[in-house]
Amino acid sequence: MVDNPIETNSPGSGTRIDPGIVRCLPDQTRPTSRLLEHKLTSDELLHLYQRMVEIRRFDELAMSLQRQGQLGVWASCLGQEAAQIGSAYALADQDWVFPSYRETAVGLMRGITPGDLLHQYRGTWLGGYDPYKHRFAMNSIPIATHALHATGLAMAAKRAGDNLVSVAYIGDGATSEGDAHEAMNFAAVFAAPVVFFVQNNHWAISVPLSAQTASPTLADRAPALGFRGMMVDGNDVAAVHRVMSDALEHARGGHGPVLVEAITYRIESHTTADDHTRYRTAAEVEEWRERDPIARLEHHLDSLGMLTDDIRRSTREAADAKASAARIEILQLSAGDPTELFQHVYHGERPLLQEQREMLRAELRAWEEM
Amino acid sequence: MSGFSMVEALNRALADELAEDDKVLVFGQDVAALGGVFRVTEGLHDRFGDRVFDTPLAESAIVGTAIGMAMYGYRPVVEMQFDGFSYPAFEQIVSHVAKMRNRSRGHISLPMVIRIPFGGGIGSVEHHSESPETYFAHTAGLTVVSPAAADDAYSLLRSSIRSDDPVVFLEPKSRYWHRHEGTLPVTTLNIGVAQVRRPGTTATLIGYGPTVEVCLAAAVAGSDEGWDLEVIDLRSLSPLDTSTLISSVEKTGRAIVVHEAGSFLGMGAEIASQLTEKAFYSLQAPVLRVTGFDIPYPSAQLEAYHLPGVDRVLDAVARSLSY
Known about the structure:
The structure holds 2 protein chains of 2 kinds.
Chain A: E1 21-22, H1 42-67, H2 81-89, E2 96-98, H3 104-109, H4 114-122, H5 131-134, H6 145-160, E3 166-171, H7 178-189, E4 194-200, E5 203-204, E6 207-208, H8 209-212, H9 221-224, E7 228-233, H10 237-252, E8 258-263, H11 282-290, H12 293-303, H13 309-331, H14 351-369
Parallel strand pairs in A: 1-7, 2-3, 3-4, 4-8, 7-8
Antiparallel strand pairs in A: 5-6
Helix pairs in contact in A: 1-2, 1-12, 1-13, 2-10, 4-13, 6-7
Chain B: E1 4-5, H1 6-20, E2 24-28, H2 44-48, E3 52-54, H3 59-71, E4 75-79, H4 90-97, H5 100-103, E5 113-118, H6 133-137, E6 143-145, H7 150-162, E7 167-172, E8 179-180, E9 195-198, E10 203-207, H8 211-222, E11 229-233, E12 236-238, H9 242-252, E13 255-262, H10 267-278, E14 288-292, H11 303-306, H12 310-321
Parallel strand pairs in B: 2-3, 2-4, 4-5, 5-7, 6-7, 10-11, 10-13, 13-14
Antiparallel strand pairs in B: 1-8, 6-12, 9-11
Helix pairs in contact in B: 1-7, 3-4, 8-12, 9-10
């Protein structure tokens, strides 16, 4: 393990994967190898703890709303809070995020309201928030396809002389897609400021990592394409923040892209439409539950004497209050005027769509009169 | 040599847009130093520097990165080297280019142009002569255009680059080197408007891209039979200018659609259906199609059998008149 993983490599020459998995917080479930210093103050650690609790509470709310029939489907990020929140906390306001459908925590960290974020899952529209306001692109359901958009936006920002980093959030399964490879290769060739934040949660629906790649690590992809790869314990929020901060600084400094492999675990099924008991053992899930990222931070804060019963209680109460407000906001989402279906397809009017909109209007009028 | 070829017209259109709008970028495989395999981008890199650049060989990435650039306010014009090589980019085009505006509820526009040399008749190898227009025209959210003449190529490409909607720009390879008398710049019709290339009364021949010339040649040959054939150049496949088609059929009573793509679910099928719905009482005969066979594109020495030619068009006119 090296103290400063960034300084071990220089861009463009002899790049290689930084050795080892970066950890900053002790892992109470196993003997911990050497820990690195993190870059967070005590207040920040406490703040991240509160956000993690709050966002987990939100994830549980979404799960139950789906069970109640209020959401069509839900892709839980339970267990991945440290990876998502630690990385999102390292971002600057001007940075862009290109998320997949599981980046709920990142979206909430970017200030998107729960309702705006969940249109897609409630089925009221395909999206909802203004991507430019939050610099959080439309989440991408076709796997890895958005990594190219992240690279393209980074190439554009670099061309414009703007100081921003574009972050592609992808998973272990996505690294098998051609688009992930192409996005990384283009980013490296054009030295574009991109961080490929790969949450290796070990499962692509039912296919385990071992069946996804013969490569010993996912971070190995980076040096093969001439850029830096780093690995971090994705259940260690402080380590994720440290590595992501280094990666962002590297990209922002004009040294090209970085791949961060955050090793974590998808505790829930792929989505509520999936049943993970068909393809993995309860023992495996249990082992990772014990390595829970919130428990890990709690343990650390405890050891520092920072977590009083009062703070635990107020954190839980604040999370409950936010979840109640989110529940109301989500239940109020509605699809609105069906003729909006024709409104955003093109800039201008199209005769074919005008015709079809009129047909729908006539049907709506007829139904009203019935 | 007087006048200009379609390649020269496209080159000039790109140059004029690059000169007028510094947000326009041109990139793809071999477009910089080489000037494109068809030389459409010749000299642009020298004149505009890194706004015209080569990329690694990856079509999905060319289109996918263009999406990110368009999101950031640029107007990328990307080149797919050949029709048959556009398919790796198909997912990006269908799942993102076409849908981004709608799924983002109007927040994100993607003003970008995907240039694709298309069609056959140039004696090339497999994957170099395809007609993929139906795939794109079938996809909501895309504008699909194809010029048939050099002057129109210039104007249509400039309009496409200025469009706030993404445009698939299909360049008929077999027309690349035909020359047009006159000078550039020139302004033709808007996107979405079909053009009557030759007025007539006997029957309406409908083509686009490479087959407009076939229709015009058939009209000349048909005059020997005493036929006065109208020729319509669609120019825009999506949106489709059905009102120009309907007006023509109201006059002639007969329509024949000519394209290189196979007949099954092709543009001809759509046009036949629309004319049947909207000009039924004007039709004296069923709308007929003269198309490539419904086979994979054949080898160079056999392509002449496959491509719709003047004789097949004239046969179709005769069949239409026999109803």
